[in-house]
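#struct-pred
JK: can someone run the complex with zinc ion? inputs below
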Amino acid sequence: MKNMLKCENCKVEYPNHLVSSFRTNKKVLNVCGICALELGNIIHGINRLKFDGLMAESLRLQAIEFREKIQKEKEIENVKP
Ligand SMILES: [Zn+2]
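RT: done, structure tokens with the ligand placed:
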């Protein structure tokens, strides 16, 4: 079993390398790349669709892939008799 960490924003559990600390003006949150982009946009009043940094963008894409994977697993689970 891999070490998992829950994103404090979307509450999804990810492998822990996909969750990183994100500093807001009030506190530090452990969030996934998807939420880090959203929160950054809100804080800075901008509307980026992706990160400029390759590392951050790679983590965001992996988080999206991971969400899709667990979503598919849930669907398969629901189809079972
Ligand atoms: Zn998240």
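RT: quick notes.
The pocket of zinc ion is lined by residues 7, 9-10, 12, 31-32, 34-35 (CB under 6 Å).
The two ends are 27 Å apart (CA to CA).
JK: thanks, will look after standup
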